[in-house]
Amino acid sequence: MKADLTTTYLWTAMLLLAACSxxxxxxxxxxxxxxxxxxxxxxxxxxxxxxxFVERQVAFGPRVPGSEAHQACGxxxxxxxxxxxxxxxxxxxxxxxxNGQQLPVRNIIASWKPEAEDxxxxxxxxxxxxxxxxxxxxxxxxIDGANDGGSGVGVWLEVARHLAEAPPALGIDLIFFDVEDxxxxxxxxxxxxxxxxxxxxxxxxWTRNLHVPGYTARYGILLDMVGARDARFYQEAISxxxxxxxxxxxxxxxxxxxxxxxxxxxxxxxxxxxxxxxVNRRLRIPSIDIIEYHEGTNGFHPSWxxxxxxxxxxxxxxxxxxxRTVMEVIWKER
Length: 334
Known about the structure:
alpha/beta, Aminopeptidase, two-stranded parallel ribbon, six-stranded mixed β-sheet
């Protein structure tokens, strides 16, 4: 997970003002809220299983693109998803990093009911930061990425575990994007367009090389940094601009399930360098980002892009709040 939030609040205010203007060209049309209907019961989300999925990823070592750990973890992800009844496509190619290095990209795309036209898009990134640029020590060494990368993948794998046995009504596409976290470290450039385009290279690659020609989905949900202890999830500004109906659906569901203390219905952050922004802007699929806002830092969790982003950060109660909420949303769609 990406760029600094030094200018978060100024950008958020500007973005929300633009989103309220009827002349805004970037805002997607407001989508109707799907009526709440009864359906088959939502499977039980197991936080211990989700935790084990995060732990397994971390055990491979830092999943830096091109490394042995990255290859091994990717192989395990593919085998696991196939074991859960998914049709899996491995989208492989080459992308250029901010420093000119050519990197292998491996997007892992798992589909259930691939023949269905009405689909939901679920996604997270599975690579990890190649350096700890926010740490005071060992800044040039890669990080574990337990929360930043590992937590979102862990939650989605627990969801995937139920998709073959108790499938929801809609077709599902679960994409683990690669080379998300290889972006240019913040510095003199700040978070401008030139530096922001160096992030999310896997999702950028996918939007230019869709696994299904003309691919679209009803909406998308991105999970990023959703595993830290006592995490709170405020509404994110890009998500509110492109997919406010999806944000409201998810936050209402969380409150109904008793997780209103975790999902706070206030906009408090703007994350313009994340995979949901790429999907929104390039494919016009209304997509949201569920991501922690940490009040102590006025931004991301203190472990972000440091060596503290280890299993010590991950909390089963947080995984449960996020996983149970998204599962309820997915299984109640009609």
